[in-house]
C-alpha cells in the first residue's frame, strides 16, 4: 500500500466522526433553538393573518408596545452614560478598590430577576424604606412606570460597561495622551479620539442592553402590579394573554419580541463580521476571565 | 492629589459610584435589612419548611445539572462551530445567542408549547413515557435553554486560539485522536469550561421567566425558588420574600466561589507569573 | 538653557523611577536618554511631555516653571513609542489634529492647515499617502506620520519615545540618518529615549546614560564611549571584557599582565578593569608582560572578526575584535596560543567592601603602543 492510500484509509473514519459530530450538534441546535423560534411564529399565525393582526392592534397590545419602548428609551441611555463613565474611570486611572468596583458592576448579572424587582419593592413599596414618605407626597413608584424603569435599569446595568472595559483596556491611553499633548481640550479628546475608537463596541453594548431592557420579564413582573394598559410591558402582556388561554394573542405579541431578538442577532452578527477587532468578542460572557493576554 | 494628564477622573468615577450606589447597592441594602425582620427563628422556620427546601433544591439542583449538561453540549457545539466547515455554519453560529436575545417569557411559552403532550416534540416523547412539560424535567429543559449561549461563547475564542501544534505534537508522539482530546485538549480547556459552567449556573439558579410556564409550578414538585418569592410578595409577606431572596443569593454566591476555587486550581499552569 | 531640570524624584508603587535627576538641555540640542528598561528614562520623558508629574524637583523652560504648564500648553511635540496614531483618522487628519483642536481664535484657516500638512507630508516623504489610514501604512511610514503630527504644532521641544523600537533593522538605520538630517535642518531641541546604545551614540549630540532612576553620566558620544564614568556605563555601552587587578610587588597586575603605573598611592589594593575588544593587542613581544591566551573560536561578522579567547592564568574568557583582513596577516587559527595584552583600560578601585569608587576612575593607556 502506498503512502497516499494509507492516509486516505485513516482519513475515512475520521471524516465519519466529523460528520457524526456535526450532525449531533445540528440536531441539538435545531431542537433547542430553531424549533422554539419556529413555534412562536407558527402559533401566532395558527388562525391566519387576520386574527394575528387583530391581536396586535388591540389597545392593550399597543399600550404595552408604547410602554416597552418608553422604558427602554429611559433605561438604555442612562446605562449608556454610566457604562462610558465607569469604563473611563476603570481603564484610564489607577485607584484603590478597582477590582471591587468591577465586581459590583457585574453584580446584577448574578442576581435573580425576581430579586432585582423585589429590592425596589422593599425600597419604594408600601412597607418599604421610602414607602410612607412617597405615599404622603403622592408619588407612585411601585406598580407604576418609574418602578418598571428602575427594575429594568438594574437588570441591564452591566451591559455597556462590560463591552467597553476590555476594549478600552486593550486600546490603552496613548492616543488620548497624544491628543492632550497636541493641545486637545477634554471634550475635544473625548469626541474626536475616545468616542470614535469605541463607537462599535458602544453600539454593540447598547444593542444587547436594549434587547434585555425590552424583553425583561421577571424583575418587571414583580414591580408592575399587572395593571392592563398602564403597567404591562410586552413580555407581561404575553404572560397575561397566555394565562387567559388567548394563545394566538400571546404568540402574536411574542412574535414581535422574537422579531426584535432576530433583528438584534442580525445587527450583532453584522457588527462582529465588520468590526470584529473593535469589539471584544466573547459575547455574552464576562471577558475578564479570558485566558492569555 | 497628584495631577493627572487625562481629564475626568473625578467626574467619571463619581458618577459611576453614585449611579451604582443608587441603582444597585441601596436596593440590595434594603433587601438585607428587610430580611432581618423575620429574625433567626423565623428564618429557620422558613428555610426548613418542606416547600421552601423543595423549591431551593429544584432551583439549585436543576441549575447544577443544567450547567453540567450545557458544558457537554456546549463543548460539542463550539467544537463543531470552530473546527468544522459546513453549509449554514455562520447562521447557526449567530443563532447560538438566541436564548440570550429572546425574552424569557417568549422562550417560556414557546418551550411549553413545544413539549406539551400535543406539541411538536411532546407528541413523540409522551408515548415513550417521557413527560417534560409541567414536570421538573421541564424546568431542566428551560434552564439548559437559557444557559446554553454562555458555555459556547466562552469556549469559542479559546478553542479558536488553541494552538494546533499541541495536538500535532500529541499525535506525533503516537497518541490516538481520542487520547489527544482527553489528555491534551480537555485539560487545556478545563478553566474555560468552568467559567462557562459558572456563568450558566448563575443564570439558571435565579431564572424565572422561561421556567414558570413549563414548570407547572406544583408545590414541592416543580416549584422554583424565585416563584416562591413572588408568592410571598403577593401575600404581602415582604420579610419572607426578602429572606428567601437573600438565601437564594447566598447559595448562588457560595456556588460561584466554589467554582472560582476549582478554576484557580485547573488554571494552575498559567499562574506562574504571579 | 532650553530646559533646566533639577532634583527630580518620582516614585511608583514599589520602585524609584527617578532618583534625584538633574539635567540641562541647550537650545537646539539633540539629546539621548539611554538606559535599560526600568531605568527611568521614559518616566523622565513623560514628565517633560506633561503626561506625568514628579514627586518633587523642578523643571524650568526659558526661566518659566514648566511643571505648572499643562501638557496642552507646553508647545511640545511628542512621538510615542507605538506612535499612538489616531486609527480612525487619515494621515492628513492625523497631522492636522493639533491645529484643528486649537480654539478658533488661534486656529489657522483651512487652507493654511492644508498647506502646512502638505509641506509636512513632503518633508516626511509621504506625498500621496495623505488619504490612507494608519493601518494601511508600514511601520516606518507610521513613524514618519507620528513625527509629522508632532511637528505640525510647531513645538519648541521634540520628544521621541523609543522612536525606532518597533522597526526592523534596515528601516531603523535609514530612518535614523534621516532623523539626524531633519534635526540639523530644523535645529529643534530634541530629546529621545532609547535602550539601544548604538542608536544613542550615532544620533545624539549628547547622551545621558540612566540606571535605576539616576543619571550615571552625561556627555558626548565620544566621552561616553572612551571615558565611561561608572562601571555601569562601561558594561552598558558596547562590548567589554571585565576582570580584577590586584596590587602586588611591581604595581597592579592580573594573571601575568602588569600595569606600569598606579595612581592611587597605595590607597587601594584592588580594582576592577574594563577593556574593550578592539583595545586588545594579540601579538605582544615576549619582552612585554602579557597573557597567554588560547584562541578557541573565530566568529566572522562581515568586516570584523570576533575572537573567543581563553586566558588560562585568569581562567577567563575574553573577546577581541580584529578586522577580518588582519586574520590571515596574523595567521590566526583556532587552537593558536597568543600573547594578549590590553592597549588601554578603564579601572575603578575597589574599597574595603569591594564597591567600585567611581570618583577615582583611572583611564590607563599603554606607554608603547605597538600595532596589533
Topology record:
The complex is a heterotrimer of chains A (293), B (274) and C (372).
Chain A: H1 3-44, H2 49-57, H3 59-92, H4 98-106, H5 113-124, H6 131-136, H7 145-156, H8 158-171, H9 174-181, H10 186-215, H11 218-224, H12 234-243, H13 247-275
Helix pairs in contact in A: 1-13, 2-13, 3-7, 3-8, 3-10, 5-7, 5-11, 7-10, 7-11, 8-10, 9-10, 10-13, 12-13
Chain B: H1 9-35, H2 39-48, H3 50-83, H4 89-95, H5 98-101, H6 104-115, H7 122-125, H8 136-161, H9 164-172, H10 177-205, H11 209-215, H12 225-234, H13 238-266
Helix pairs in contact in B: 1-13, 2-13, 3-8, 3-10, 6-8, 6-11, 8-10, 8-11, 9-10, 10-13, 12-13
Chain C: E1 3-12, E2 15-25, E3 30-34, H1 41-49, E4 56-61, E5 64-65, E6 76-79, H2 91-100, H3 110-123, H4 139-152, E7 157-161, H5 169-186, E8 189-194, H6 197-203, E9 206-211, E10 214-219, H7 221-226, H8 231-236, E11 241-248, E12 251-254, E13 257-258, E14 270-275, E15 280-281, E16 291-301, E17 304-311, E18 316-323, H9 324-329, E19 337-342, E20 344-350, E21 362-365
Parallel strand pairs in C: 3-8, 3-9, 6-7, 7-8
Antiparallel strand pairs in C: 1-2, 1-4, 4-5, 9-10, 11-12, 11-14, 12-13, 14-20, 15-19, 16-17, 16-19, 17-18, 20-21
Helix pairs in contact in C: 2-3, 2-4, 3-4
Question: Could you explain the architecture of this structure?
Answer:
- The complex is a heterotrimer of chains A (293), B (274) and C (372).
- Chain A is 76% helix and 0% strand.
- Chain A contains 13 helices and no strands.
- In chain A, helix 9 runs antiparallel to helix 10.
- The longest helix of chain A has 42 residues.
- The radius of gyration of chain A is 24 Å and the shape is globular.
- The two termini of chain B are 30 Å apart.
- Chain B has 274 residues and is mainly alpha-helical.
- Chain C has 372 residues and is an alpha+beta fold.
- In chain C, helix 3 packs across helix 4.
- The model of chain C has no long low-confidence stretch (mean pLDDT 91).
The oligomeric state of the chains shown is: heterotrimer
- What is the count of helical runs of chain B? 13
- List SSEs of chain B in N-to-C order: HHHHHHHHHHHHH
CATH superfamily of chain B: MetI-like
Distance between the termini of chain C: 45 Å
* Overall outline of chain B: globular
Secondary-structure arrangement, i.e. CATH architecture of chain B: Orthogonal Bundle
| Order of secondary-structure elements of chain C | EEEHEEEHHHEHEHEEHHEEEEEEEEHEEE
Fraction of residues of chain B in helices? over 70%
Greatest chain-chain interface?
A-B, 103 and 100 residues
Query: What is the terminal-to-terminal distance of chain B?
Result: 30 Å
> In what range is the share of β-strand residues of chain B?
under 5%
Number of helices of chain C: 9
Mean pLDDT score of chain B: 89
Structural class of chain B comes to mainly alpha
Unreliable sequence segments of chain B: none
Major beta sheet of chain B, specifics? none
Amino acid at each position: 500500500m502506498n503512502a497516499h492510500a494509507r492516509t486516505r484509509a485513516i482519513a475515512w473514519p475520521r471524516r465519519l466522526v466529523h460528520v457524526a459530530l456535526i450532525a449531533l450538534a445540528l440536531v441539538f441546535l435545531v431542537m433547542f433553538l430553531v424549533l422554539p423560534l419556529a413555534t412562536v411564529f407558527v402559533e401566532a399565525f395558527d388562525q391566519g393573518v387576520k386574527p394575528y393582526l387583530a391581536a396586535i392592534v388591540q389597545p392593550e397590545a399597543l399600550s404595552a408596545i408604547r410602554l416597552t419602548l418608553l422604558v427602554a428609551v429611559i433605561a438604555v441611555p442612562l446605562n449608556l452614560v454610566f457604562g462610558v463613565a465607569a469604563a473611563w474611570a476603570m481603564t484610564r486611572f489607577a485607584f484603590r478598590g478597582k477590582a471591587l468596583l468591577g465586581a459590583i458592576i457585574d453584580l446584577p448579572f448574578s442576581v435573580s430577576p425576581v430579586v432585582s424587582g423585589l429590592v425596589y419593592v422593599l425600597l419604594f413599596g408600601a412597607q418599604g424604606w421610602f414607602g410612607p414618605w412617597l405615599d404622603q407626597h403622592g408619588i407612585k413608584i411601585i406598580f407604576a412606570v418609574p418602578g418598571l424603569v428602575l427594575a429594568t435599569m438594574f437588570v441591564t446595568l452591566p451591559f455597556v460597561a462590560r463591552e467597553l472595559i476590555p476594549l478600552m483596556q486593550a486600546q490603552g491611553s496613548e492616543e488620548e495622551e497624544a491628543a492632550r499633548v497636541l493641545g486637545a481640550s477634554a471634550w475635544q479628546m473625548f469626541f474626536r479620539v475616545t468616542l470614535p475608537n469605541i463607537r462599535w463596541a458602544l453600539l454593540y453594548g447598547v444593542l444587547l442592553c436594549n434587547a434585555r431592557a425590552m424583553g425583561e420579564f421577571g424583575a418587571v413582573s414583580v414591580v408592575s402590579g399587572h395593571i392592563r394598559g398602564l403597567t404591562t410591558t410586552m413580555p407581561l402582556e404575553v404572560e397575561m394573554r397566555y394565562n387567559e388561554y388567548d394563545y394566538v394573542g400571546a404568540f402574536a405579541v411574542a412574535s414581535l419580541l422574537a422579531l426584535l431578538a432576530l433583528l438584534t442577532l442580525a445587527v450583532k452578527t453584522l457588527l462582529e463580521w465588520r468590526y470584529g477587532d473593535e469589539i471584544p468578542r466573547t459575547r455574552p460572557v464576562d471577558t475578564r476571565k479570558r485566558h492569555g493576554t | 492629589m497628584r495631577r493627572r494628564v487625562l481629564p475626568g477622573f473625578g467626574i467619571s468615577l463619581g458618577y459611576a459610584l453614585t449611579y451604582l450606589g443608587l441603582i444597585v447597592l441601596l436596593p440590595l441594602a434594603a433587601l438585607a435589612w428587610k430580611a432581618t425582620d423575620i429574625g433567626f427563628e423565623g428564618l429557620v422556620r422558613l428555610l426548613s419548611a418542606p416547600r421552601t427546601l423543595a423549591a431551593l433544591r429544584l432551583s439549585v439542583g436543576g441549575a447544577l445539572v443544567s450547567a453540567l449538561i450545557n458544558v457537554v453540549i456546549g463543548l460539542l457545539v463550539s467544537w463543531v462551530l470552530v473546527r468544522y466547515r459546513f453549509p449554514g455554519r455562520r447562521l447557526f453560529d449567530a443563532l447560538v445567542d438566541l436564548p440570550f436575545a429572546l425574552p424569557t417569557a417568549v422562550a417560556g411559552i414557546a418551550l411549553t408549547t413545544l413539549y406539551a403532550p400535543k406539541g411538536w416534540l411532546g407528541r413523540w416523547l409522551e408515548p415513550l413515557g417521557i413527560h417534560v412539560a409541567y414536570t421538573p424535567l421541564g424546568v431542566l429543559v428551560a434552564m439548559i435553554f437559557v444557559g446554553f449561549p454562555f458555555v459556547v461563547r466562552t469556549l469559542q475564542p479559546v478553542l479558536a486560539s488553541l494552538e494546533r501544534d499541541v495536538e500535532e505534537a500529541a499525535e506525533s508522539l503516537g497518541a490516538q485522536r481520542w487520547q489527544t482530546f482527553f489528555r491534551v485538549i480537555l485539560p487545556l480547556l478545563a478553566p474555560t469550561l468552568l467559567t462557562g459552567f459558572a456563568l450558566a449556573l448563575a443564570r439558571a439558579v435565579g431564572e424565572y421567566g422561561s421556567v414558570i410556564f413549563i414548570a407547572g409550578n406544583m408545590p414541592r414538585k416543580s416549584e422554583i425558588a424565585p416563584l416562591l418569592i413572588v408568592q410571598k410578595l403577593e401575600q404581602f409577606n415582604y420579610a419572607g420574600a426578602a429572606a428567601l431572596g437573600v438565601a437564594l443569593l447566598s447559595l448562588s454566591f457560595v456556588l460561584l466561589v466554589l467554582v472560582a476555587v476549582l478554576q484557580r486550581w485547573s488554571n494552575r499552569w498559567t499562574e506562574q507569573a504571579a | 538653557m532650553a530646559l533646566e531640570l533639577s532634583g527630580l524624584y518620582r516614585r511608583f508603587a514599589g520602585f524609584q523611577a527617578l532618583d534625584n535627576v538633574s539635567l540641562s538641555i541647550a537650545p537646539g540640542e539633540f539629546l539621548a536618554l539611554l538606559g535599560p528598561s526600568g531605568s527611568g528614562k521614559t518616566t523622565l520623558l513623560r514628565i517633560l511631555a506633561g503626561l506625568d508629574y514628579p514627586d518633587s524637583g523642578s523643571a524650568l523652560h526659558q526661566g518659566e516653571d514648566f511643571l505648572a504648564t499643562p501638557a496642552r500648553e507646553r508647545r511640545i511635540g511628542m512621538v510615542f513609542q507605538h506612535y499612538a496614531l489616531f486609527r480612525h483618522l487619515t494621515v492628513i487628519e492625523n497631522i492636522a489634529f493639533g491645529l484643528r483642536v486649537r480654539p478658533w481664535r488661534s486656529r489657522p484657516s483651512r487652507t493654511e492647515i492644508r498647506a502646512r500638512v502638505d509641506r509636512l507630508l513632503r518633508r516626511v516623504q509621504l506625498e500621496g499617502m495623505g488619504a490612507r489610514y494608519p493601518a494601511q501604512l508600514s511601520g516606518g511610514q507610521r513613524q514618519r506620520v507620528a513625527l509629522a503630527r508632532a511637528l505640525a504644532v510647531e513645538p519648541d521641544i521634540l520628544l521621541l519615545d523609543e522612536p525606532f523600537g518597533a522597526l526592523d533593522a534596515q528601516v531603523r538605520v535609514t530612518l535614523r540618518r534621516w532623523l539626524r538630517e531633519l534635526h540639523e535642518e530644523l535645529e529643534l531641541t530634541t530629546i529621545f529615549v532609547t535602550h539601544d546604545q548604538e542608536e544613542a551614540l550615532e544620533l545624539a549630540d549628547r547622551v545621558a546614560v540612566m540606571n535605576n532612576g539616576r543619571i550615571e553620566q552625561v556627555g558626548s558620544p565620544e566621552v561616553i564611549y572612551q571615558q565611561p564614568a561608572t562601571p555601569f556605563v562601561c558594561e552598558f555601552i558596547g562590548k567589554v571584557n571585565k576582570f580584577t587587578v590586584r596590587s602586588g610587588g611591581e604595581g597592579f597586575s592580573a594573571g601575568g599582565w602588569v600595569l606600569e603605573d598606579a595612581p592611587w598611592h597605595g590607597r587601594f589594593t584592588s580594582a576592577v578593569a574594563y577593556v574593550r575588544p578592539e583595545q586588545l593587542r594579540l601579538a605582544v613581544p615576549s619582552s612585554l608582560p602579557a597573557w597567554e591566551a588560547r584562541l578557541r573560536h573565530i566568529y566572522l561578522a562581515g568586516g570584523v572578526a570576533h575572537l573567543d579567547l581563553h586566558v588560562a592564568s585568569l581562567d577567563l574568557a575574553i573577546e577581541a575584535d580584529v578586522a577580518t583582513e588582519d586574520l590571515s596577516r596574523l595567521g590566526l587559527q583556532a587552537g593558536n596560543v597568543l600573547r594578549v595584552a590590553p592597549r588601554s583600560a578603564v579601572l575603578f578601585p575597589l574599597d574595603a567592601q569591594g564597591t567600585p569608587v567611581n570618583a577615582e576612575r583611572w583611564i590607563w593607556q599603554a606607554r608603547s603602543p605597538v600595532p596589533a
